[in-house]
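Weekly modeling sync, notes
Attendees: S.R. (lead), two postdocs, one rotation student

Agenda item 3: backlog of single-chain predictions. S.R. asked that every request posted to the team notebook include the full sequence so nobody has to chase files. The rotation student volunteered to paste the first one in as an example of the format we agreed on. Action items at the bottom.

Example entry:
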Amino acid sequence: MDEDTPYCAPAEVKAATAPAAEGPYAECVLCRKPTEYPESTRGITLCPVCAWQEAQRTACSG
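Predicted structure, as returned to the notebook:
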């Protein structure tokens, strides 16, 4: 590792997927309820309730 490279480089920020106008919707990976995102969304999809709870967990894990 050279001096110009930071030790903890920031992760790439991906653009959020726009909410789907109409179904089919992807299901939440935690509670299996429909989310506001289309089924074609890649990665982990969370419903608003689970996303809020996950944010609370990670904020307090410091």
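Discussion: group reviewed the output briefly. The mean pLDDT is 78.
Action items: rotation student to repeat for the remaining queue; S.R. to check formatting next week.
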